[in-house]
Structures are given as C-alpha cells and as structure tokens.
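Exercise 3.2. Students should predict the tertiary structure of the chain below and write it as structure tokens, then compare their answer with the key that follows.

Predict this chain's 3D structure.
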Amino acid sequence: MSAYVIVLAAPRPEKADEAARYSHAVQPLLAAAGARPLLRGPVSETVSGAGGLATGMVLEFPDRAAASDFFTQDAYQALVGLRDESFALMEIHIVG
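Answer key:
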C-alpha cells in the first residue's frame, strides 16, 4: 500500500542557493526510490499553527518501508547537513 510523505519547509532567505542545491540533489534520489510528487506549492494561508512556512509538498512512495528507507539511506543522510543549514524549518512526516 502506498505511503505519503508530507514536507513543510521554510528556506532561509540568505541560503537560497544552498536550498536550491539541496532540492536538486534530492530529485534523483526520489526518482530512484520510486517516489512520485503529487503536490508542491507555496503555502498561501496558515489556518492553525505558527505559520512562516513557504512551501508544502506531498510525495507518494510505493510503501511505508520505501518512504522510511529513503530518509535513512546514506545518500540522503549525506544531504542532511545542507538541508539543516539551508532551511529555518523543515518538517517531514510519513503518513500511511
């Protein structure tokens, strides 16, 4: 059964180039994991919560194991430092 990953992010404005590098580096890893982007766009309104988010994304993975394994693989772990440096906030949730 498919699993979904919900990503909520707020890039650091002064680190826009690094955030773009992270985003580009993640794309081939997602493709290799069989992930399919379902939705990506700017957060237009915060109904509940602290707000300040810039982007929301929903990804579909083949199953929960594929989603979980994606984030623990060495290739993704090598990008975590760049991710954490480039974004003031990035929440990643696996649903399903």
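Discussion points: Residues 3-95 form a domain with the Alpha-Beta Plaits fold (CATH 3.30.70.100). The chain is about 40% helix and 35% strand.
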